[in-house]
Each structure stands twice: as C-alpha cells, then as structure tokens.
Amino acid sequence: MSLSFVNKVQECARFIQERMQVRPVAGMITGTGLSDTLTDLVVHQVFPYAGLPHFPQATVDSHKGSLVQGTLNGRDLLVFQGRIHMYEGYSPQLVTFPVRLLQALGVPMLILTNAAGGINLDFSAGDIMLIRDHINLTGQNPLAGPHEESFGLRFPDMTRVYDPDLGRCLVDIAAQEKIQLHAGVYAGLLGPSLETPAETRFLKNSGADAVGFSTVMEAIAGVQAGMKILGVSLITNINDPDAPEQTTLEAVVGTAAKASDKLNRMITGFVGQLA
C-alpha cells in the first residue's frame, strides 16, 4: 500500500533527525538564482534532494537541489537551496513538502526568498522588497482536498501571513547595513510564461508591487503550520506595461547573483537577532 503524503513527510523527517543533532531556529527556501546567497553560512551537512526519502526533485537549472544544515551568525539553520514549483508539474501539496518537513522537525520560523519582476516603477533591478502581503493568482491552494488535522486548521486566518515583528527586524538590519529595502505586495502566478503587458497592467491595478511564480503556496502552508514567516523578493527586472522590455531567465539569474550579497548581509544580520 502506498504511503500517504503525511507519512512520506514523517519518514523524510526521521531520516534527517537521525543525522542531525541540532534544532534549527529557522528554515529558509531560496529563489531563482539565490541558492548560494548565504555566503556566511557555515555548512555542517548537505542532503541532496535526490537522497531524501520522497522529496520532490528541483528540475530548474538555477535551483541547486540540496538541503543544507548549517550555522549562520551563531544560529542553526536549515536552508533549501532551490525550490519546487507548480510550473514544473508538481501539485500544490508537493510544492509545500519543504514546509511540511520543517513543521515535522519542529522548526518555528520560515524565511522565503524569491526572484521577482518589479511592477512598482519606483523599484529598480537589484532592489530588495520585504513582502508585506501577497495575492494568490495561481488558482491553486495547498490546503484544498482532504484535510490533514496534524497540519493545522482547516480554514487558517490569512490576515497576518508575514509576521510584522520579523519585518520590522529586517527593516532595522537593512538600515544598519545601509541597504535600501522596499516593502510591498507580491503577486504569485502559476508560470512559467512571463507576463504580457496587459497582465502586468492588471497586476499593477490590483495593488501588486512585484510578481513571481513561487512563495504563496509555501506561505499558505506555513500559516497553517503556525510558523512565523519572513518573505523577501529580490527584484530582477522592471515590468512597465507602457514600455515593455523583453527578459530572459539568464538575465534574471544574473541580476540575482549580482544583488545576492545585499541579501546575504540582511539575512545574516536578521538571523543573528533570533532567540
């Protein structure tokens, strides 16, 4: 008989617990081109996704596909270097496997990073945005289907997805590091095709400041799991519907790489403030 999703998560969690003697204060999922963002991370163990029981495989070149257990600024972390997307053919449930794994391991905090297109024309490529809220435009939800009581409430409240206290902490760190930090709303789409000018105009009118193909599924699962969530977007290009410019994955990855030092400094300082 095939294992249920929750049993697969538990089996993967046991595999990691048998090999890890620490309890991380947070888990982090990295976005496109951001797998190696945390250059200050002291790596203790690396678990390739291919070696983790039941773990879905990252199929996008810019997502490394490894779970790293390490220490950052004196705090123990689990870092998923590369994420799983629905546009790869995965279900919303499988996209949230990393979040459910952190939940099973008792990790209380989730840091979500992504590479995003800027819709707010006050932004520039290479800027960083603190996610204050999101708009789920994927037409999907990881909580749909049979309810698993061990995961949390069937109808979790979504009025405070991204923890305000964590956001204020990141704002303070950015000021200390003299890094400009915007704040705004992230729109999550299914992808992988990029937005048309008409779609960009719609997103702008809906109140979105940035757009991407990730994050919202993981955030929803994190809320149900009772985690505190910090969300950060690295703006890789600007989408102006009145002056559209073509972009490529290679350009997105290149911009992410150039700006990742700022993100490393911010996350390193932020993690150092955690209890």
From TrEMBL:
All residue ranges annotated as the Nucleoside phosphorylase domain in the record: 29-271
Name of the molecule in the record: Purine nucleoside phosphorylase
InterPro entries, per database record: Nucleoside_phosphorylase_d, Nucleoside_phosphorylase_sf, Purine_phosphorylase
Task performed by this protein: The purine nucleoside phosphorylases catalyze the phosphorolytic breakdown of the N-glycosidic bond in the beta-(deoxy)ribonucleoside molecules, with the formation of the corresponding free purine bases and pentose-1-phosphate.
Pathway participation: Purine metabolism; purine nucleoside salvage
A GO term from the CC aspect: cytoplasm
The protein's Enzyme Commission number: 2.4.2.1
A Pfam family hit: PNP_UDP_1
GO molecular function, one term: purine-nucleoside phosphorylase activity
